[in-house]
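HOLO CASE FILE
Compound: S-adenosylmethionine
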Amino acid sequence: MLAKTYFGLESVLAKELQLLGARNVKTINRGVSFEGDLGFLYKANLWTRTALRILVPIANFKVRNEDELYKKVKDLDWEDYFEVNKTFVIDANVFARQFKNSLFIAQRVKDGIVDRFRDKTGRRPTVFTKDPDIRINVHISNENVTISLDSSGDSLHKRGYRSEADRAPISEVLAAGILKLTGWDGLRDFIDPMCGSGTLLIEAALMAHNIPPNIFRKNFSFKHWKGYDPELFGLLFDKALEKEKNFHFSIYGFDKEAYVLRKAEKNLRNALMHEQVETAIADFMNFRKPGSFRDTGLVVFNPPYGEKMEADIPALYKGIGDTLKREFAGFEVWVFTSSSEGLKNVGLKPSKKIQLYNGKLESWLVKYDIYKGSKKHVHKD
Ligand SMILES: C[S@@+](CC[C@H](N)C(=O)[O-])C[C@H]1O[C@@H](n2cnc3c(N)ncnc32)[C@H](O)[C@@H]1O
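Model generated. C-alpha cells follow.
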C-alpha cells in the first residue's frame, strides 16, 4: 500500500505506520509504502494523523501509448472491485514525456473501466467528480503504470470536525505533522497564542487523548468496495474508542479576534474537545501569562505570514519575539510560517529550522528555546 503525505512529513508518517503495525515500511518522496492486511487498511485510515490518502495498488504494467493503456485497463477485473451502480472518478498523476495530458489519460482509463463493465454486465458505472463512491488512482512514470484503488476517497485532512474556517487555516494533516515534529507527547501544557480556527489545538487535544483523527469522518472509499467488511470496521472503530487516554495537563488557545475565536470554539465542540481546551481573547503583543500557567510548556503557533497585505510583518514578528522573551522563559516554542522576512525580526536564535510547505508556499517550522536569561536582552536591545 502507499500512504501519501506532504513534503517533509514522510518520516513522521513512516513512524506512525510502524507504530500501528505496518510491515516493510519505506519512505518515498511525499509518501510511504508499506504492507498490511484489510484490517490494517481500515486502521490506517482511522488512525494515521499525517496521511492524506492511502492507495492500494491493484495492477502494474508497461504501456507505450494511450491505446495500450486503454486495453490493459479494460483487461482488469473491475467487476470484482466494485458494483456497477457505484459512482467513480479517476485521479491521474503523469510523469512521462510520451503522455502529456493527464486529463486525456484519466479519460482513457475511464473508457477502459466503463467498457469492461458494459461488456460484462450490459450496464456502466457513472463518473462523478464530486463525492464519488470510488476513487481510482493512475500513476504513470515513463512507461510504468500503476493502477490503485484509493481507500480514503476524500483527502484524510477532511477529518469531519472543521465546519468553520478563517482566512488562513492550515491543513489538519499539516497541523498534525507539525505537532509530531515538535515532539508533542501530551505530557505538558500546550499553548497556541494565535489559534485562528483552532486546527493546532484540536489536533493537539486529539493526540493528547489518543483519539483517532478520523473518528468523526462519515465516509471512506473502502466502504464502497465489493469486499468491504463492515463488522471488521465496526470492531476496529469500537476498539479505537476504548483507547482514549486521560490527559493531565492543560491546552490553551488565544486569538486577538473574537469572531475567529468563536470559530475555534465551534470546531472544538464538533471534535468534542471543547471541555479539554481553554480559549480566551488576547493580543500577543501585550500578552501577560495568566497566573494559572505552569512554568514550562510547549508553545506552537502559525502567525500571519503576510497573506493579508495590510499586516506589518516585521513589527508583528518583533512583537512576537519580545513577548516570548518577556513571558515564556522556560518554554519550548515553535513558530510555523512562510514569512522569511518575519523570521528575521523575531530577535531570538533558532535552535532548529525544518523546511515544509503550506500549500505551494515554502515554509519553516522554527524552534526557539527561551531561557530565563533571554529576558535581559529585551532591555539591552
Ligand atoms: C495564520 S492564522 C492561524 C491559523 C490557525 N493555525 C488555523 O489553523 O486556523 C493567524 C491568526 O493569528 C491571529 N493574530 C494576528 N495577530 C495577533 C496578535 N497580535 N495576537 C493574537 N492573535 C493574533 C489572527 O487573528 C489569525 O487568526
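CASE NOTES: Residues 2-150 form a domain with the VC0802-like fold (CATH 3.30.2130.30). DSSP finds eleven helices and 15 strands in the chain.
CLOSED: yes
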